[in-house]
Amino acid sequence: xxxxxxxxxxxxxxxxxxxxxxxxxxxxxxxxxxxxxxxxxxxxxxxxxxxxxxxxxxxxxxxxxxxxxxxxxxxxxxxxxxxxxxxxxxxxxxxxxxxxxxxxxxxxxxxxxxxxxxxxxxxxxxxxxxxxxxxxxxxxxxxxxxxxxxxxxxxxxxxxxxxxxxxxxxxxxxxxxxxxxxxxxxxxxxxxxxxxxxxxxxxxxxxxxxxxxxxxxxxxxxxxxxxxxxxxxxxxxxxxxxxxxxxxxxxxxxxxxxxxxxxxxxxxxxxxxxxxxxxxxxxxxxxxxxxxxxxxxxxxxxxxxxxxxxxxxxxxxxxxxxxxxxxxxxxxxxxxxxxxxxxxxxxxxxxxxxxxxxxxxxxxxxxxxxxxxxxxxxxxxxxxxxxxxxxxxxxxxxxx
Amino acid sequence: xxxxxxxxxxxxxxxxxxxxxxxxxxxxxxxxxxxxxxxxxxxxxxxxxxxxxxxxxxxxxxxxxxxxxxxxxxxxxxxxxxxxxxxxxxxxxxxxxxxxxxxxxxxxxxxxxxxxxxxxxxxxxxxxxxxxxxxxxxxxxxxxxxxxxxxxxxxxxxxxxxxxxxxxxxxxxxxxxxxxxxxxxxxxxxxxxxxxxxxxxxxxxxxxxxxxxxxxxxxxxxxxxxxxxxxxxxxxxxxxxxxxxxxxxxxxxxxxxxxxxxxxxxxxxxxxxxxxxxxxxxxxxxxxxxxxxxxxxxxxxxxxxxxxxxxxxxxxxxxxxxxxxxxxxxxxxxxxxxxxxxxxxxxxxxxxxxxxxxxxxxxxxxxxxxxxxxxxxxxxxxxxxxxxxxxxxxxxxxxx
Lengths: 400, 400
Prior knowledge:
The structure is a homodimer.
Chain A: H1 9-34, E1 58-59, H2 60-76, H3 81-97, E2 108-109, E3 115-117, H4 123-139, H5 142-160, E4 177-178, H6 180-193, H7 198-216, E5 217-218, E6 223-224, E7 227-228, H8 238-241, E8 242-243, H9 245-261, H10 266-283, E9 295-296, E10 310-311, H11 312-329, H12 332-348, E11 360-361, E12 367-369, H13 381-399
Antiparallel strand pairs in A: 1-2, 2-3, 4-7, 5-6, 8-9, 10-11, 11-12
């Protein structure tokens, strides 16, 4: 690996402290203290500001995310018995209650694990693959690694076999491709590769990045489209014009991470930086700061109600993407962008009283909801950012 | 009809001016000038602030709503050729492009009328019934009135025949009833009754109100539940606790309207007033004024992102409900509530530059989106309020 750019010593140390202490002393303990269901297994992620339980329903995709996180803590930080025990506790629930008879995974089940919702998406599968892959590396369970590969193959099949993922729009009238498909395949394959299926994963990582480059990156409009026509055409409707800057910026760092793993590969680096540059320009709110949730390709109004709210996770993704962009390029612009989004996020999202981050702010940065977890927000984007940025900065120090 | 309470002469005249002029000189012209597709038929409701087109997609349920409105203008205001022509223009599009082969109606089609989205709900059907019923009264088309009755029967079947409306939650684990079912049946039957199917409609009006009273009105919590267990039990989850005050207040005035038609029926009036009182207390924002979109039965955080935004339509429904409550009771409290919500709404929603109302405000009343129409907002709640309140006040003057 080529030497990577690093902020000055003082800045680096200060940032490491923020990320590491935030992860180990705040965010991970918040969830461990409040979400574990000792009685029925699994986790209850719907939590109030102070960790109070808002619902006993259990969300499968968040189970995969937490098991992945706990396993990565064991791999990247230290092999703590508590983390490994909890990861296995979560995996046991996924295996016992996550799958319907036809093999498709549920979105949610009740406290006892009885089926509640099945959705058309494959996010439960994707994060179960990641959880199985990372956990198998900690506990050496080769059968679990095999199962991860099998589930990844099954998930790929859902995207290609008709009838599994029903399109929202009639494909005879309006064929559409979704950016979330290559995104989730890319991200799942990157995690799975560390455990098993290296050549299968490499193939799908390359295919997914190529699909992002050729279909979803629209050079005319300098934007990553969230949905596009079969050949990448802009669909000029409310839905077709809607951009999700935080989502594209997440893809940017997946691709930059791939560039890093491949010796700072210049082509991949260029793709990742282009996405980051475009979508930062599309998403950063010049009036109040922070990243807008949705913007329109032509600057027209978005139809989704929460378009101008500030959600926690786009900020987590942008903090990773800008820091990684700086590490790979040494360009001060990215260090400045990192400072900008890191500072805005840390000034507005963390809960000074009960810890962890608020998830939903108004455009002006005031808190809209005090909840810490629900069916969408769990122990994932915040701690993944803290772990990734801490390790990136620590690696940089070691190689300098 | 018993004599109804009326604000003092000056207030009454001033309110009539606001509603009548808003309807005839602002809102109806805005839509007529911008949404009519002369080339392919039907209407394009996705409009920017100045009436600029945001999408050529066509939303069937909004077609039903606009045809209903235009027909009611002919019935309640005057028989204007332009209104009748446009109502028939809209109905022609619904009949030509609204129905799938299995008889279910689409949610949206493209500009040429080709199928785009089919949703599980029956709102396209409900508003097509209302459109057919009201239009048949204007143009004397008896076959259209029959078709309205047949479509109403079909819609009722969807609620009872398994497989048509797939429940979101597995009914084996969590059987749930939705408040929107009796609401939409009640509202559809009230409109249809004026044209045809009187005894069928009367039966379903009574059944729907009884279902609201026995299942969804929760006296322990003084709240109308949006979803409930089979016997009206509160489901203590994020979804089960979520109240939609504006929706319940809409039901309140449907029931108060029924009370009015039945000679100020005391039992119906009590039901309507109870719902209004409960849900006003649940929804009115003591900090910024206006009605919150969602609140939680126990005051816990809501999970829907836009819970604290101020949408146009709950205000329209509350303006009707409070004015009607005052008319039926003469209680000053309701006149005060009417003034409160009328003033807040008129101070924040109307667009002073291009007319019509903004739809989506932040909690503090600032504008979140400048759009005037999309797949949800069209010519319905604002003009229905203006027409209803104008006629109510004008009737009151005539009988005094």
